[in-house]
Design goal:
This protein is mostly beta strands. It is built from three helices and 51 strands.
Length: about 600
């Protein structure tokens, strides 16, 4: 492309794009090599709309009287359909059909390209004006899809039946596009791009958050596992960008949230999950390798009478797992705790249980509990009376109780999940209300550890750093005693200040403590260099699923993620493997000519 060229369209598979050249002609080019495909088209100034067909093999040109369909490689006119006021024109993936929305009222017309005649199939009559009533239309995989009244509808061209896409969007849809093979459907809004995998049950693969971008022409390349889109600069598109989804395509995802809460063991080898079924909370432990797990005894939780709160924690060595529930009564907001069970993860059996419910209803668990470093004690915080307690796991008796004064930092209006963490040496306890408790003395001090309501504290594996995420999306990093702030990270912040802040819901340090993974309520996951306070690349591609837990594998090369709709996903975060994958997707490094164009101030080197 030259400086006078401008991007106009991208083929449905994202592999070819259309350029409006400085001399007024149109040229199709290859997205990988930038080589010209076929001869330029000289269509004149009276063609207001042009669009590439599937694979970039055809070019659709519309004017105020007709639609022309061109064969790009052969530079041959395939079909001229006389029709006034064409609002939308597209070609089926196999190139056999030309689909038009015409007239101000939106009338659906379909043409057989080879036979050059109108098609009057049942699905055309069923879709009728409904398909053309919205602001976007596409065809793929035997389906015709349209956005109508802020909903995504699609019709089966074999049966004529209409289907609705599940309404999980946080954004109003305004554009959609099928992949060439019809397996995927992209739905674009002003702030997000949702990628669905179609089948008997639509499956949300990716929710990509736009970073203050105005985009159009989203295209899907399922073979490469990427989506591509044009970014606007003023009134003209100025760049073609690529987002990978191949690592997300096969992740198991459920339309309904199946996981209520999740925790990883400190070494990342086990994942604990909880789900609510009626008035029972069902718990399970399973290896993150995918091996068969263990179902634990369930816990009673009267969710029909109020909010059910689940508490789970691993011991520092992962050998013990403690869990329990409590019910928050709706009218009174009083908490009623149930029993705490302790599970031996190695012997796969229950080792003990504690009844820590007291006489006063307000004296409940409150926020969380943690196992002591020796696994013999359970440290409990009760928010109703602002106290922390130590219980003997073996005898079930309370050993000590200390009061905490932290009313200044409490925020009853915040609905996030507060948590507690214990420093690896067992000598400092930090809760979600910014209270630090020195152990074994029990002396406590309250500090403002976050910018908003400090809700999620997490120590690094060595205990030399304390990270605290808050409800405004920020993460503050402190020294091991929580006295000196060493970094402030824009954890889940996107730079879009028109949207609500995304609460930090999960934190995880890499084994060496150099990298911090941050997860949010809206599915944002970012990696941060702790020493410099800088992000490591852009946010990871996710399905927008609320992040429940994060963990690095023991070698630090893989990030594990647990969400409400997908119990376990993994991301390769090893720099060497990522660099190799980038070179593979880019088909090698920059040529000398490209290097001179984009990096003229640096000496050329082969980066792949």
């Amino acid at each position: 492309m030259s400086a006078d060229d401008s991007l106009t369209d991208v083929s449905p598979d994202g592999r070819r794009f259309l350029v409006y050249r400085g001399d007024g002609s149109l040229q199709v080019r290859d997205a990988y090599s930038d080589a010209a495909v076929g001869r330029p088209f000289q269509l004149g100034d009276d063609v207001p709309g042009v669009r590439l067909g599937p694979g970039g093999k055809t070019l659709i040109a519309t004017d105020d009287k007709s639609v022309r369909l061109w064969d790009v490689p052969r530079h041959r006119l395939l079909l001229r359909a006389e029709s006034a006021e064409v609002q939308t024109a597209l070609v089926s993936p196999d190139g056999r059909l030309l689909i038009l929305c015409t007239g101000l009222s939106g009338s659906l017309k379909v043409w057989d390209v080879a036979g050059r005649r109108r098609v009057r199939a049942p699905w055309v009559r069923t879709a009728g004006r409904s398909a053309c009533h919205g602001n976007s239309l596409d065809f793929g995989g035997g389906f015709l899809a349209a956005i109508t009244d802020d909903r995504v509808l699609f019709w089966d061209t074999a049966s004529g039946r209409r289907h609705d896409l599940p309404d999980l969007s946080q954004d109003e849809p305004d554009e959609l596009a099928f992949s060439a093979d019809g397996r995927y459907l992209a739905v674009t809004g002003s702030r997000t791009v949702d990628l669905w995998r179609l089948g008997s049950t639509p499956h949300l693969v990716l929710r990509y958050t736009l970073r203050n971008e105005q985009i159009r022409k989203v295209r899907i390349d399922p073979e490469a596992g990427v989506i591509r889109y044009l970014v606007r600069a003023g009134s003209e598109p100025s760049a073609l960008r690529t987002v990978a989804f191949d690592t997300m395509a096969d992740a198991r995802w459920h339309q309904r949230a199946t996981t209520y809460q999740a925790r990883f063991s400190p070494d990342g080898r086990l994942i604990a999950t909880a789900r609510l079924v009626g008035n029972e909370a069902e718990f399970a432990l399973r290896p993150t390798t995918g091996s068969r797990g263990t179902r634990l005894p369930s816990a009673h939780c009267e969710s029909d009478r109020g909010e059910c709160i689940v508490h789970m924690t691993f011991s520092m060595d992962g050998a013990a797992f403690a869990y329990g529930t409590e019910t928050v009564d709706g009218p009174s907001s009083r908490r009623r705790p149930e029993r705490v069970r302790v599970w031996d993860t190695r012997r796969k059996r229950e080792s003990s249980s504690l009844d820590i419910a007291l006489q006063e209803p307000d004296e409940a668990f409150g926020d969380d509990f943690v196992l002591g470093p020796d696994q013999r004690s359970l440290l409990v915080y009760r928010s109703g009376v602002d106290v922390w307690e130590r219980w003997d796991v073996r005898t079930g008796e309370r050993i000590e109780r200390h009061g905490i004064g932290l009313q200044h930092f409490r925020s009853p209006s915040y609905d996030g999940t507060h948590s507690m963490t214990l420093r690896p040496d067992g000598r400092l306890l930090v809760n979600g209300y910014s209270t630090l408790v020195a152990l074994p003395s029990g002396r406590s001090v309250t500090r403002q550890l976050g910018n908003g309501v400090a809700t999620l504290p997490q120590f690094s594996p060595s205990g030399d750093r304390l990270a605290v995420g808050d409800d405004m999306g920020w993460v503050s990093v402190w020294d091991k005693d929580g006295r000196r702030r060493t970094a402030e990270l824009a954890g889940t912040l996107s730079g879009d200040f028109t949207s609500d802040p995304e609460h930090v819901t999960a934190l995880a340090f890499s084994p060496d403590g150099s990298v911090l993974a941050v997860g949010g309520a809206g599915g944002t996951i970012t990696l941060w260099d702790v020493s410099s306070g800088q992000p490591l690349g852009s946010p990871l591609s996710t399905s927008g699923d609320r992040t429940l837990a994060l963990s690095f594998t023991h070698d630090g090369r893989t990030l594990q993620v647990a969400g409400e709709h997908s119990a376990l996903r993994t991301y390769d975060v090893d720099p060497e493997r990522i660099a190799a994958e980038v070179c593979k997707r880019a088909h090698g490094g920059l040529t000398r000519e490209q290097w001179q164009t984009y990096l003229p101030e640096l000496s050329y080197r082969d980066v792949c």
